[in-house]
Amino acid sequence: MTHQPPFTFAFQPIVKVTSGEIISFEALVRGLHGESAHQVLSQVDPLDLHTLDLQLRREAIRLASTLGGPCHLNLNLMPRSLALSPDAISSTLAMAEDCGMPPDHITLEITENEIIDDLRQFSEQINACRASGVRLAIDDFGAGYAGLNLLAEFQPDAIKLDMTLVRGIESRGPRQAIVRGIHRTCLDLGIDVIAEGVETEAEYWWFRQEGVELFQGYLFARPGLRQMPLAFYPTQS
After folding, report:
1. Pick from 75, 26, 80, 94: which is nearest to 51 by CA?
2. Among 229, 234, 100, 113, which residue's Cα sits nearest to residue 164?
3. What CATH number has the domain spanning 8-225?
4. Which among 35, 130, 170, 207 has most CB atoms closer than 10 A?
């Protein structure tokens, strides 16, 4: 790798509001002074991103294991890493085992808008790792054009709705219709739906009225640098 920027992680909870529990933490890349993931990753040669991608997952597991508390983690995965790094999954699982984290405590997130050159090959690779107990989530669902193809090719354990669908949804009829359709499809397929990027109580209550139970966003907790944050649960007045 030609250049590796310094990095750490912030952990943001994914909460199940019907039970009041934190079901997992997403490990979000940050610079040492709070720089965003984009700022960190933009310093890396695109040809080296898959190598860093592997290192990031391992380091997130290691750091989370030193912090105590729940150790269910959502980790980002660049689909191209599977093609370029045969050990992309096995080395992640090896680190988890070294840290005492069972495979079924790990959810790998892929973004819908990332290019997957060979969807069928990717499906075979990811389903092989799911056999070990690892869960799969599609992030930013609704942001691109691959989402329905991904659902048709293999059924993930969860999808995370793109924030462009979430933002201001309580007053956006077309977005409401789209999300209702996605939610109904996922219910039929047994796929969890996570409303990500929820910032206002109006957004939250619209999703709750539609039966969504899983949330992530500033309304509940901001990502915490080097520590596991507590979640805030809004109450209806």
Report:
1. 80
2. 113
3. 3.20.20.450
4. 207
Count of other CB atoms within 10 angstroms of residue 214: 19
Contacts 24+ apart (CB under 8 A), 171-174: 171/202
Question: Count of CB atoms within 10 A of residue 168's CB?
Answer: 14
Alpha helices (H) in the chain, listed in sequence order: 37-41, 49-67, 79-84, 90-98, 119-130, 147-153, 163-166, 173-189, 201-209
Report pTM: 0.87
Per residue in 91-149, pLDDT (tens digit) is: 888 888 888 888 899 999 987 666 566 667 777 777 777 888 899 998 988 876 666 77
Q: Over the stretch 124-138, which tens digit does the pLDDT of each residue have?
A: 777 777 888 899 998
CA distance 130 to 178: 29
How would you classify residue 233: left for phi > 0, otherwise alpha for psi between -120 and 50, otherwise beta? Answer: beta
How many angstroms separate the CA atoms of 220 and 215, rounded? 8
Q: Tell whether the torsion through CA atoms of 83, 56, 233 and 142 is positive or negative.
A: negative
CB-count burial class (<10 Å; 0-12, 13-18, 19+) for 119: middle
* Domain boundaries of the chain, sorted by first residue: 8-225
Place of tokens 């649960």: 233
Beta strands 106-111; 135-141: pairing state = parallel
Q: Find out whether 36 and 30 touch, Cβ atoms under 8 Å.
A: yes
